[in-house]
């Protein structure tokens, strides 16, 4: 019976994946040889599915484990992921078979795979010499992130955070979508008896959380993940996380030690306000460098306190307004951002699409700000005009620091 179930599940995988991707896994995973965590099959796979799903795909029936009505099946999978550029690790994935009538905010079109955007040696994105190439790559690949959340919450603690799409197909069948997410490792799993798990998927029409610092739960579908599924998977995730921990800590420590060499002196907002009306190009350049140093200091503090989260970005507005106070010339504010290393988006047209109140804002970004072992830290600063179309002075500053993966 177990062999039959395995064969039927494999036939389901063949239905899901395009033939061109079968030779190389669509999610970038590969097998670590003689791996003590993944076993002989090179992966760990734990399922739960409804009776209707079992009947539809000729699978052995399971006891109902409390799947949400709009989800027919879930799989938790543990793999060895190799992204090239010396980046490889144990990764936990979540696969879901979802009602495709739900208005989901998909990354791009009806079918997509982050693997089509990733490049290994020697063409890894971190080696691109042309900044326009790097900006284009990060803009496209980041669209697969910050559109879903893996939430694990206990009475005393909260794990999990933003997760990225690996692969999705809106019309797997006429009524069924297939979604695959990476959990960026396995650290989101706590003891199943203490934590409640849920999957949040952003709704169509929601805001772009790459440029927003606060999560709005109303913009997400929220699905509880059955506890028995997590109970069966947790021992494997825990073992993988223990194996990965030492290596990740060593990589992060080396990067943080390098950041400690940055300068610590920061001028205060009062002094800057006196200078704001007599800015020269030299002052703008200096101010940009000081802003950059202040953000690096802030990153170190947040990282040391383990306060950086993949979703619901850390608000660093108070740091930024010391260097770009409200009332700053908009031209000067954009120059300060560029001198700090930000990519500054063009000013919106007179009639931008949508109805969001921030649609006239100008956004500056550094992606990545810091490249970590499994993820990267990004910084976004939003400048609001005095009124729609009036870019004479800055009326509001918002800034956030986010955590995401390649």
Explain what the structure shows.
There is one protein chain. With 406 residues, the protein is α+β, with helices and mostly antiparallel strands. The chain has two domains: 2-247, no CATH class; 262-404, no CATH class. Helix content is 27%, strand content 30%. It has eight helices and 15 strands. It has helices spanning 2-16, 51-56, 131-142, 227-259, 269-275, 281-304, 317-320, 330-339; strands at 29-30, 44-49, 71-84, 87-99, 111-113, 148-153, 158-173, 176-182, 196-202, 220-224, 314-315, 343-344, 362-371, 376-387, 390-404. The strands form two sheets. Strands 1, 2, 3, 4, 5, 6, 7, 8, 9 and 10 form a ten-stranded antiparallel β-sheet that branches. Strand 14 (376-387) and strand 15 form a beta hairpin. It is elongated and about 75 Å long.
Summarize the structure.
The protein has about 400 residues and is α+β, with helices and mostly antiparallel strands.
